[in-house]
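Me: Here is a favour to ask of a fellow structure person. Could you put it straight underneath, so I can go through it closely?

Assistant:
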Amino acid sequence: MGYRRIRYELDKHHNINVNDKRVLRICRKEHIRSMIKWRPKSCTKNSDNPAHIAKNYLNRKFHADAPNEKWLTDVTEFKYYIGVEVHKVYLSAILDLYDRRIVAFKIGNHNDNPLVMNTFDEAVRLEPDAHPLFHSDRGFQYTSKQFYTRLKKHRMKQSMSRVAHCIDNGPMEGFWGILKREKYYGKRFTSKENLIAAIESYIDYYNTGRIQRNLHLMTPLEYHERYYAAA
């Protein structure tokens, strides 16, 4: 993490109040550097046989006035190694644009329909009264009749990114970058169990422990709960 985040963490979780310059000076002395932010390598291509295509109703309007007003979703992959063999797991997640919390997530061996459907079902179980605008890319899972039927059943309006425009789903891509820079890049996982445990623990930390400047130095869960406390 960078020097500003280290300063926030010291203040929030350890009651150590120091200024940015001092933390930066110590980081330079101890050769502590944040992970470089990389551009996404690729964007999801359009499904070959889409059953349903939606317009980009979100239209890069990444602000929300309340929880469960706008949800974003996507799938990303992680690798682990057993000897010289490369194996993969896939993380499907749903992010709330109001508080940037991860509403629900699932990890599976395959990037397939069940992974996405199970993630959606978990989100609905946790937030049964939510009827958000639901935004995704045009991956085959999201353009399927099965997924469209789920959205209609729960009275959610579907929105989709344009083909080859990753920024249309920018905050979701941003979360993948945060997760991978802080927990995955620079490490070599040699078991599926350790990789999954690392992902799960990081998402818990992200929701409950990782403060964000755009949330007024609160965690996603704190910002979420403040909304209902003020209502």
Observations:
- The longest helix spans residues 192-208.
- Strands lie at 70-82, 85-96, 102-108, 133-136, 157-160.
